[in-house]
Specification:
Elements: H1 3-28, H2 37-64, H3 66-70, H4 75-105, H5 109-137
Helix pairs in contact: 1-2, 1-5, 4-5
Length: about 140
Amino acid sequence: MPFREKISWLSLGGILLAFGPYFAMLLSGTPPWALNPISAAWFIGMVSVLATVMAVGTIGVALTNLREAQRPSDERDRMIARRASSIAYAVLAPALWLALATLFVSSSLSVLVNAVLAAIVVAEVVRCAAEIAGYRRGWHG
């Protein structure tokens, strides 16, 4: 498995681990909708979990194969990343419009903030999944 594919798997797992419990709680009906210190602590915790998973995981993956980790990305890696970013943008743009549409349903700023955060997280999950699929299926142009 190529180094950058391993990093994509790590990113996908880190995002799901960090943001999954938060959005599961929101969908369960006991959400911290208000923008207050508790929701700020949740956000700081999510970002901390993601940063820790990515830092420790990347170091671990790099130590397993230093030569491949030090090699610059090649044309195939760049094409897969470009295609995955294009797919993710196609998800992000309408998701952000839907997030803005929450203003018509609710006047709460916290609903908008959570909807925008969800749009960004979903687009990033799609990007990681598209990169993984690109390596698995051999997309490169």
